[in-house]
Amino acid sequence: MASRSMKSPAVSASLGPAPVSTDDEGGFAREHVSVPSDGVPLDQCLTREWLVTDGLGGYASGSVPGPHTRRYHGLLVAPLAPPLGRHVLLSHLDELVSGVAGATPVSLSSHEFEDGTIHPRGLDHLRSFELIDGRPTWIWDIGSGGQIERQIWCDTSNPVADASGHHASATHISWTLLGVPSATLQIRPLATSRDFHAEWRGNGDWHFEISPVRKSHTSPPYLDARSAQDHAVIDVRAHQHAPSWHLVATPPRGATWNWDSSSAGWWWNFLHREERARGFDHVEDLYCVGTLSTTMQEGQALTVTATVAAIGAAPNPAPGAGRTVVTRRTASPPRRVSVAASLTIEPPSASVGQVQGDADSRFLEQLRRAANDFIVVRNFSDRHGSGASTGRTVIAGYHWFGDWGRDTMIALPGLTQLTGRVAEACEVLGAWARVVNRGMLPNRFPDSGAQLGEGDYNTVDATLWFIHAIDRIDTMAGGALVDSLWPVLTEIIDCHTAGTRHGIGVDPADGLVRCSDGQLTWMDARVDGIDQTPRAGKPVEVNALWIHALSLMSQWADGRGDRQGADRYRVAGTRASESFQRRFWCGPTTGGWHRVDGTTGYLLDVIDGPQGNDASLRPNQLIAAALPATPLTRTQRRQVTETVRAHLWTPRGVRTLTPADPRYRGKCSGTAETRDSAYHRGTAWAWLLGPMVDAWMLSHETGARALLSPLREHLWDDAGVGTISEIFDGDAPHTARGSIAQAWSVAEVGRAWIASTPLA
């Protein structure tokens, strides 16, 4: 069975936060991130990573100082079967600025090689890195008082369309000259063509297929037709079976690009230090496809686009054409949010570019930007593998996660509330409904893009989270969603009642849901065939979600005039609720294995498991305390949240096991085996702050916002800049680990932040 931890790497230790700044110049919200020129050690700066995404599952990403530290870094990482099949095509650009009067040539680039050498050392000239309206922005000193600014972006809400109208990945890189009259910019693209999970080595007898430079007199659809005269187009392919991609160089009016193919050839032995730390292959070779150069004038912006879109003679303009490059000297275009006019939820209140007046507002506005990264296009077939159609799904995390059922359903309500993309959220739920089989949602879609198989349906909780998500999105959409999905909803309840795969079904003895496989909940790590958190039996959060689902089904059936169905769901829910209250509460005399001496007033983690009841002090009980339909009194909710606050809460997330338990692992680092063994045995998860805040607000008058506030430091100057990591060490200083941008982390923190906003 697939475990979500299979490809989770560790991120190096993080620094404390750099000062957060805003700047009214040009009306932009800006956040400063530590760079070596701030006096911060390079090894620590290299743990800061940037990310921009394309709405298809592709992205561009790298370290803030420049060297790629992961095999997943690259400037064009394109999904060949969106959102999966992701390949690194353009890895780096090697950039050199010359021709500045009174100054020597300055490299902007930095690469790290296998022997530890960093060359060239553009990072020594790097003056600042900021997010300007969420867009990565670098400034280098180039001598004689001059600077050059670079920005990188994709268009998440409107992915590039090629000449045939098909959406395709594209990354845009722009440079603007500041403070000197003119300079020459030289760019050498460094290419590869590999699955992003692998490393590639070169061969001196192997040369990429690179077309002669051609000119397009028609603007590509993602560029302003007025911004240039001729676009230099370079077609690149690693070999005859590899995907083709293109560089489109766009100088300002009156300037041209020069192309030198004599510099084409292999560059050897680039190091990915994070892969080395994980014990994986960590060296790759890259192919220089040639050299582009042009003369820049002060204030002019030059743009290069890397794309897999076909660049034809008469491209079909896509939404967003005419977009200008955002610099300190230009106005930012309005943010586009796809929301049906009839829907009741509001899109983000502040347009991109509007300065937020305080740290709380800036935090929320950046979470809104980050949330857009995860909603992407997917082609779906129905449960029988037929009837393909285009829909939407949720990428669980960047860089390496695909779309997982559980992650999608937990994250979707928060992502929708943050972005206002209600219509697309309905698409997501409708698309996933098509693949429900025997009352179950798949755990995930295969990374290979293959059709779903029987082995992909290996989750006990994703389907119940699906019902929870339908309820949240149906409310935002005005109530039409439940009716459209009613046949699927009734199938889910019927199959769970009668029994389905993996021993999942209702126990007639108490009305609670059980499962026979210990790897079916979100705590699914497995090492050498051994479950690290075996939870066969009746997990607490699964049964809380089951009771919640029955309550919703009774309400919905009643609203549809189905009184018989409403009564049936109500009776089943009442029986399960009574059993839950009687069997899960851990009082002073309650027995159970893994119980920590002296701890009481919380919920058992699993009952009726192979070894009896599991009294491990874990955070899954928060989900029960957070759902209104769960049969807990206000006093019990308060006890649960206070127990969790005392034993499991950290400033970055909620631990998966109390440190008082001898199985606790405080650091999630090292080899894949040691990471997976710690994944749910102490590691802290940011997404759990969502249900913790919900439960806290149901049982306390104040204090919910304080559970979230420390994450402001992480958002701006730690790991993935401007987003929230997947996991953190349970031990202080709670180093960020795992993926640098996780959907449910952003979604649940953002949703809880909104919910805990003090009333005016």
Low-confidence stretches: 1-28, 221-229, 313-357
Assign the CATH topology of the largest domain.
Glycosyltransferase
Number of strands: 39
Amount of helix = 10-25%
Integer tally of domains: 3
* Number of DSSP helical runs: 15
Any idea of the CATH class of the largest domain? Mainly Alpha
Computed structural class = alpha+beta
Kindly provide the radius of gyration, computed on alpha-carbon positions and rounded to a whole number of angstroms.
Answer: 26 Å
CATH architecture of the largest domain: Alpha/alpha barrel
The main pleated sheet reads as: 10 strands, antiparallel
Distance between the termini: 49 Å
Shape: elongated
Give average pLDDT, whole number.
86
Percent strand equals 15-25%
How would you describe this protein?
With 760 residues, this protein is of the alpha+beta class. It has 3 domains: 1-12 and 648-760, no CATH class; 25-307, Beta-galactosidase, Chain A, domain 5; 359-647, Glycosyltransferase. Helix content is 24%, strand content 24%. It contains 15 helices and 39 strands. Strands 1, 9, 10, 11, 12, 14, 15, 16, 17 and 22 form a 10-stranded antiparallel sheet that branches. A hairpin with a 7-residue loop joins strand 5 and strand 6. Helix 3 (359-371) crosses helix 4, helix 4 runs antiparallel to helix 5 (422-433) and helix 6 (462-477) runs antiparallel to helix 7. It is elongated and about 80 Å long. It starts with 29 loop residues before the first strand and ends in a 5-residue tail after the last helix. Mean pLDDT is 86; it is low at 1-28, 221-229 and 313-357.
